[in-house]
Amino acid sequence: MTDTIINTISGYLPLLVVLAASVFTLSICHLLLIRRADKSEGSSLLRQLTMLLLTVVAVISVILALPIAEGPKGDLLGLLGLVLTGVFALSSTTFVANAMAGFMLRTVKSFNLGDFVRVNQHFGRVTERGLFHTEIQSEDRDLITLPNLYLTAHPVEVVRASGTVISCDLSLGYDIAYFQVEPLLKQAGIDAGLEEPFVQILALGDDAITYKVAGFCAEVKYILTLRTRLRKKVLDQLHGADIEIVSPNFINQRRLEVGERKLAPAQSSAVQADDIRAPEQSIFDKADRAEKIDALGKELATLKDEVRSIDKMEKVDKFDDGNDDDLANDARQHQAEQRIKHLENILRVAKQNHKED
C-alpha cells in the first residue's frame, strides 16, 4: 500500500514541479513586465508579447509533464494546437487584427505620446499606446480607449509637434468690402499671438461672404486657448471698427428699426481677459505626464549608452592612465551616472502616479 502511494506520488512529482515552476515564473514575469515595468512607448508591446509567449510555453510544458503515455500526450498537444488555431481564427477580427494593427502603427510611427490626434469625432492627446488599444485624453479631461484596428481603418489627423495652423471662420454681409475686413482679421491674428496670419474667402453665399483667418501656432500644447483667443481678437477688431457680425437668420427673427444695430462694445485696453490659467494644463494632465515620462526614458537610455561607451573606451585605453582624455571621460561618466540616478528616482515616482491615475 505504501509503495503504491509512493509510486503514485513519484509519478505526479514532475507534473507538480513543472506546474509550480510555471506558476512562479509567470507570476514573477507578470510582476516585472506588467505591473512594475516602464510604461514608455515602445516597451509595452514587447512586454505583452513576451508574457503571451511565456504563457503558451508554460501550458505546453505542463502537458509534456503529464504522467500519461506518449500517444495521449501527442493527442493533447494536437488538440491544443487546434484550439489555439481556432481561437486565432475566430478572434481574427478583433484580437489578432488589433495586434496586427498595433504592429502597423508602431512601424508607421505616425504619432507619439503627448501628440494631439483626431479620429472621426474623437479629439485629444495620446496618453498610452498598447498592443491592442490606444488611449487619448479628450478636451473634457476624459480618457477614451480606441482599438488599434479602429485607428487603422479610419484616417488619423495628427497635430505636428513643430506647430500647426489655428483658424477661425465667420460670415459678413456683402455691404462690407473685403479690403476693409482683411486687414482687421490679420491684425486679430497678430494680437492672438499667431505667426504670419492670412485671410481667405471661402464662399460667396446667397446672403453673406464666408471669411477664414488663420496663422501659424508653434505652441501646440495650448491649441485650445489660442483658438479661443483668436475668436476674441476677431470680435474685438470688428466691433472696434464698427462692423456688425449679424447673420440673415438674426435679422429675420427680430425686426430692427432703421439705423439700429446689435453691436457689442469693444474690449477696453485695461481689461486683460487672457491673463487666466491655460485650461490645457488641467485638461491634458495625463497626456503631459505620459509625454514627459517618455522623454525622460529616452534621455535615460541615451545616458546609459554613453556610460557603456565610456567603459569600453577605458578598457581599450587601460594602459594609458593619467592623460587628459581619461580625466575628461571620468568626469563625463561621473556626471552621467549622477544624472541617471536622478532620472531613475523621478521616473519611479512619475510611473507610480501615472498608474494610479
CATH topology grouping of the largest domain? Alpha-Beta Plaits
Gap between N and C termini, in Å?
Answer: 59 Å
Number of strands: 8
Instruction: Output the CATH class name of the largest domain.
Output: Alpha Beta
What is the rounded Rg?
Answer: 32 Å
Strand content: 15-25%
Global geometry: elongated
Element-level helix/strand string: HHHHEEEEHEEHEEHHHHH
Mean pLDDT: 78
Low-confidence stretches: 270-276
Number of helices: 11
Tally of discrete structural domains: 4
Largest sheet: 5 strands, antiparallel
Largest sheet, spatial ordering of strands: 4-3-2-1-5
| Helical residue percent band | 55-70%
Indicate the CATH architecture of the largest domain: 2-Layer Sandwich
Structural class: alpha+beta
